[in-house]
Amino acid sequence: MQAGLRMMPPPVEASGITSRRCDPQRRFFFCPVRTYTKRIIHMPMLNLLFLGAYGAFALAVARVVLAAVFLAHGPMKWSLWKTTDAKPMKGLMKFLSVAEPLGGLGVLFGFLTRWAALGLALVMLGAMYMKIFVWKRTFTGENGWELDLSLFALSVVLLVLGAGAWSLDRVLLGM
User: Fold this and answer.
1) How far is residue 114's CA from residue 160's CA, in Å, rounded to a whole number?
2) Strand partners, 42
3) Distance separating alpha carbons of residues 34 and 21, to the nearest angstrom
4) pLDDT tier at 48, thresholds 50, 70, 90
5) If pLDDT is split at 50, 70 and 90, which confidence band does 94 have?
C-alpha cells in the first residue's frame, strides 16, 4: 500500500442490507452514511456530486429550449420580405428569417451543433448591439434585451460543450 492512501473497509451488514458504494450509474442513489456505531446504513438522498451523470439530458433540454425559441421567432420575419421600407434592414431580415430556423433545426437535432450555436450566438450579439446602442433599450422592460442575453448564454454553452450524447453529432460524426 502506498503512503498516504488508506484502504476502505469492506461493506458492513446493517439492518439486513448489505452496503454498497454510491454508484452514479444507478437511477436512485442510496449512499452510505456512517453512524456513531461505525455501521454503514443506507439513506435515500440526492447526491449533488453525481449530477454530472445527467449531462446528456441537460444538454438535450438546452438544445430543445434554444431551438424552440429560434424556430418560433425565425418564421415571424418572413412577413418582412414584402415590405419596401427600411431597405438596409430588408436584406438582414431575409438572412435572419432563414438563418434562425436553420440554426434552430441544427441545434434541435444536434447536427453540426457547435456551428449552429456559433451562428445563433452571433445573431444574438447583433440583436443586443441593435437594442443597446441603436434603439437605446433598457435591459428589462418593453423590448428589452434580457432574452437576447439569455439566448446568447445558452448558445455559448452549446458552443463550448457540444450537443451531448443524444445527438446526431454523436451518432454520425462521433463528436
Assistant:
1) 7
2) 32
3) 12
4) low
5) confident
CA 17, 49, 159, 135 torsion: positive or negative? positive
40: cell is: 454503514
Alpha helices for 40-86 (secondary structure H): 55-73
**CA geometry: angle 152, 141, 151, nearest 5 deg:** 10
pLDDT at 68 over 70: yes
pLDDT at 167 over 60: yes
110 CB-near residues (< 8 Å, 6+ apart): 60, 63, 163, 164, 166, 167, 168, 169, 170
* 150, 156, 157, 162: CA torsion to nearest 10: 140
Question: Residue 35: what pLDDT?
Answer: 42
Nearest in space to 115 (alpha carbons), one of 102, 96, 125, 128: 102
- Say how far apart CA 113 and CA 102 lie, in whole Å: 11
Grid cell in block for residue 138: 433598457
Average pLDDT over residues 5-9: 50
8/10 Cα distance (integer angstroms): 6
Give residue 146's identity as a one-letter amino acid code. E
Chain center to CA of 135: 30
Sorted by where each begins, the domain ranges of the chain are 13-46, 53-173
Give the pLDDT confidence score for residue 142 in this predicted structure. Answer: 87
